[in-house]
TrEMBL record:
UniProt protein name: GntR family transcriptional regulator
HTH gntR-type domain: residues covered: 8-78
Pfam annotation, one family: FCD
Family annotation (SMART domains): FCD, HTH_GNTR
Coiled-coil segments: none
UniProt keyword list: DNA-binding, Transcription, Transcription regulation
Residues that span the membrane, as ranges: none
Length: 241
């Protein structure tokens, strides 16, 4: 990995130029990139440098390569599922490396999730409601491990976001639910009341089933306040040890 304090490498500059052309619409899905030789000549670099740039773009799922007489590097169709995974990874690294405070993470995470409650109540499906109930059943298992409870907690809130039926919202909320939620769970899992969280989860599902936006929002607001207070208590206790 390159040091962010050093100038970008030639391969990074080439990759950035191609990425910018994709974002600007000068390169479209399915367009074929110039050959390695042409790219090398255009940028005044070796073919090895071009290959490294193409590897960077392929790692981000921005291009695909095909072999054969009509092969080469082509602009890829980037799915929301692929972008979502990258969003989660980036958000996790960003939060971890920048020491975001517990309260800031909680505020952002619940503000983002509550932004989808109106659509979620309107569009929720029986299948997603069943998924959320299934997670509540799992969370209620007496001998469930802390790790499994945390994973179920994330899955429950992911389903809540998916109830909105909006891929763009799901993408943007992926970082808050699938990156911030596990980090918050790591701090509070030993002290929190599973019963209290499960009761709030049940209230959320009940509100969605009735399409009652206000009750879903109230349950999320209560969960936010509980999580922030619990996190502050846990962190204060650690600091005095």
């Amino acid at each position: 990995m390159e040091n962010p304090k050093t100038p970008p490498s030639l391969s990074a500059k080439i990759a950035d130029a191609i990425r910018t052309a994709i974002v600007d619409g000068r390169l479209l899905v399915g367009d074929r990139l110039p050959s390695e030789s042409e790219l090398a000549d255009n940028h005044g670099v070796s073919r090895a440098t071009v290959r490294e740039a193409l590897k960077r773009l392929a790692a981000q799922s921005l291009i695909r390569t095909e072999r054969g007489a009509f092969g080469g590097a082509f602009i890829n169709h980037l799915s929301y599922a692929e972008a979502r995974a990258q969003q989660v990874t980036t958000s996790t690294l960003l939060l971890g490396m920048n020491a975001i405070s517990f309260q800031v993470a909680c505020e952002a995470r619940y503000a983002l999730e509550r932004s989808c409650t109106s659509l979620a109540a309107e569009r929720r499906t029986d299948a997603l409601l069943a998924t959320m109930r299934s997670e509540i059943d799992s969370q209620s298992t007496r001998d469930l491990s802390d790790e499994a409870f945390c994973a179920s907690d994330v899955a429950f809130h992911r389903a809540l976001v998916d109830c909105a039926g909006n891929e763009v919202l799901s993408y943007h909320l992926a970082g808050s639910v699938e990156a911030m939620q596990p980090l918050m769970n790591m701090i509070t899992f030993t002290a929190r009341s599973r019963a209290e969280i499960i009761d709030l989860h049940r209230a959320i599902v009940s509100g969605l089933e009735r399409r009652d936006v206000a009750s879903v929002d109230r349950a999320l607001a209560t969960l936010e306040a509980y999580t922030i207070t619990l996190g502050q208590t846990v962190l204060k206790a650690r600091a005095t040890r």
